[in-house]
Amino acid sequence: MSIFKKSVEVLKIISFLVLVLFSIAQMKGQALADYVIVKDIVIKGNRRTQEKVMLIELDFKKGDTLSVQNLGKQIERNKKRLLSIGLFNFVNFNIKDWNYETGELYFEITVVENWYIYPSIILEFADRSFNVWWKDENFALDRVNYGLRLDHFNLTGQKDRLKLKFQRGFQYKYEAEYEIPNIYNGWGLGANILFSENREIGYKTTNNRINFIKLEDERVLLNRLRAGFSFSKRNTAHLNQVVRFEVNRFEIDTSVSQRLNPSYLLNGRQKMTYGLLSYSMVYDKRLYPVYPEGGYFIFFDVKKFGWNSKSDYNNLTVEVEGQNYFKLAEKLYLGNRAKVRFNLNRDPLAYINNNSIGHGGNNLRGYELYVMDGSDYLIASTALRYQFWQKVVDFGRFMPVKAFKLMPIASNIRFVYNTGYAYEPTYKQTNALNNTWLNGYGVALDFLLLNNYLFAIEYNFNQIGDRGLYLQSSFNF
Length: 477
Fold this sequence. Notes:
By secondary structure, this protein is mainly beta. It has two domains: about 5-115, membrane protein fhac (Ubiquitin-like (UB roll)); about 115-475, membrane protein fhac: a member of the omp85/tpsb transporter family (Porin). About 15% of the residues lie in helices and about 50% in strands. It contains five helices and 22 strands. It has helices at about 5-35, 50-55, 70-85, 130-135, 255-260, and strands at about 35-45, 65, 90-100, 105-115, 115-125, 145-150, 160-170, 170-185, 185-200, 200-205, 210-215, 220-235, 240-250, 270-285, 295-305, 315-330, 330-345, 375-395, 405-425, 440-450, 455-460, 465-475. A 16-stranded antiparallel beta sheet has the order 5-6-7-8-9-12-13-14-15-16-17-18-19-20-21-22. A four-stranded mixed beta sheet has the order 2-1-4-3. The chain has a two-stranded antiparallel ribbon with strand order 10-11. A hairpin with a 3-residue loop joins strand 20 (about 440-450) and strand 21 (about 455-460). The longest helix is centred in the first third of the chain and has 32 residues, at about 5-35.
């Protein structure tokens, strides 16, 4: 073979190798353009909150590979998730030192912390809601509780909550509660104790309204003691599980057990003591959970009351809830919710344990003034929401508390339809709204303050012809 032919062969081999190397470089460059590697996550502005509290909320961690195409959406999703835990007024994500050759970058997260300590004077309504106190009790001042309360929502910087309450008035209540959600590797603990006395009680339900009584000598008609502790496990940013142990003790006056309602604690009993073991699981994939803009939520809870058939209260209940949310257009959102609870023990329940719709946050729009007792219930709702205004209000020098100088406020208009059914197998008389499908409708004006406090003015209707203005509020802690 001539030198010329050998040179041609060598050139062919070199050209082939160059093409291969060029193709590899192109593929590597394309890969670097499509993905980035999180080299580090740096957090600033958290004077009290520990970094681990924030990092567990993120859906990525140091060393993860993220899609460049979805990077903007992922940043916005995690920003809203941090805002929704109630510890911060503002959260900003910045990308730093993006190396386009290696594809590495680090995130700098800057936060402005919320106000965590809320010492307050208790001045609250003894009724189930402001609406009941307003419309049924005509603003009766003797149905108001007063006292002192302290809430700390970030005591040691671990999103741990301390609550202390000293209350007099309509109901005497002394309560202490502490929860720390992340002691080690996602494990948390909680403990609570409560003692309360009532000189006026709701002893019976008639026409789906609670009947109250207070004796002339103002003796204590009901006292309650509750003590318990819990273990929790935060498996991921979205999954949380809790196991809870409690002991409950109720004691009523003989005038209640013998005359007013022998079924109050069942069978004319004056005292009731039972243990409670419960397991709950929450899987929360909602985008901005405090006021969801997308995603879904699943809740499962099972409770065992009493240890055996000889216990004062022996029951097993299962509760399941599901929610999903969709963004239909810019600032237009659709949400759906369904919740069901049923008792596996079909024995008659004591009046005090026979709570369904209208109790414990299980409300139907349009039926704010009613309660539907029962062993089982189902509620479902659909809401269409439009956010028409959003702004950060700067109070400047007029606000002495730094955490409140800048206040994010959002206003929404909301249209709601809900339906529900409470199954009452035992106490059927005089409560026509039990064992029937109920439908309610409404329109609301919502105000979300500091990413935590939701206040709503609603005008609601129901199928039995009621309509009226109602006020609702909730706190995201």
